[in-house]
Amino acid sequence: MSTPMTQDELKTLVGRAALDYVQPGSIVGVGTGSTVDKFIDALGAALQKDPQFIAGAVSSSVRSTERLEKLGVKVLPAEAVSGLGVYIDGADEIDHAGYMVKGGGAALTREKIVADLAERFVCIADESKLVQTLGKFPLPVEVIPMAAAQVIRAFAKLGGQGKVREGCTTDNGNIIIDVTGLSISQPAQFEADINQIPGVVTVGVFARNKASVCLLGTPSGVKTLTF
Ligand code: 5RP
Q1: CATH second-level architecture of 139-204?
Q2: Residues 198-208: pLDDT tens digits?
């Protein structure tokens, strides 16, 4: 009898599978997180075989930039590119329409900026991330520090309980508020509404920048969902 695959192995599987979505010689958008780390490892292996495999990357965090640069990948600032073919990133939750909750790694603002440059968002995730309705995972919201209490009160009116993430400062110098108790059945409207609260920099619902494709790691292999 074979042993079941661990979550880490499922992440490795989808990290490798994402290479198929990279146009050789292109500049690729790179997300943040443990699943993306597997994609970066796979990129490293591809670059060993073919140093021209990609021309460079636009990264969504200091963490991913450091990993990419260790492999010798040229990391370009987002403002230096006018568009990307593909953006590859993980998610904390993804639903059956490709809407996502992201920001568990506190990189949501830059992730949304880089995702918005790309024609296609390829989400890589293990199967535990697939949900019917978004909201079980505490919703990350990047907030300007002086607005913390106000933003928490605004979420309380919506039935959510917000808590400042301890010891966390984003790459942009802001805080993260994690909100529990929400059920996000209308992600696009929700994203637009929350972005109106003064002090909110970015809400971790990715509706405007939802996934085009999700490579889902399952024990029987990679399942491809297209939206
Ligand atoms: C970081 C993110 C990540 O994509 C998300 O948290 C998933 O991370 P992991 O691949 O480690 O499960 O949004 O801000």
Answers
A1: 2-Layer Sandwich (3.30)
A2: 999 999 999 99
